[in-house]
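Deliverable D4.2, example record:
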Amino acid sequence: MKSSIKDSKIRLRPAAPEDCDLVFGWRNLPEIIALGSSQKPVGALEHSDWFGLILRSKNCRLFIILLNDVPIGQVRFEIKENNYAEISIFLITGFTGKGLGVISIIKSCGLAFASFPEASCIVAFVRRNNVFSLGAFRKAGFKIDNIGAQRLDHLRLNLAR
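Output generated by the structure prediction step:
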């Protein structure tokens, strides 16, 4: 992907405990629920417990996506037992459809490969009807594959190291 002015304005920072409420608010936005894997809202206690576990886990990395230092989304990676890192990403409404997701995926995958040297690839499970996310992952270099267990209503895409 060609570098652009948007590229220099996007950066990622590791999530911190004080981001818990921010991420919780995003997680329960109707548009995030509709496109997410579970398609269900979560409660504050459930989210707080999950957030703390993610921040402490040696197998996970959670980043806040910033545009001009304004938080616009999150990306999470979790190393799986088959030595791949699974990615989960979202941008909040108003920041989608502008190529920012593609840049965020590319930059965050570089961080994930550095964080997880044992990972042979990064895998995304994207709902089949989420054409915008599918397009963003494809533009970021991910390929659709048929490896391993599939998830109902999802396509599996991967990015090799």
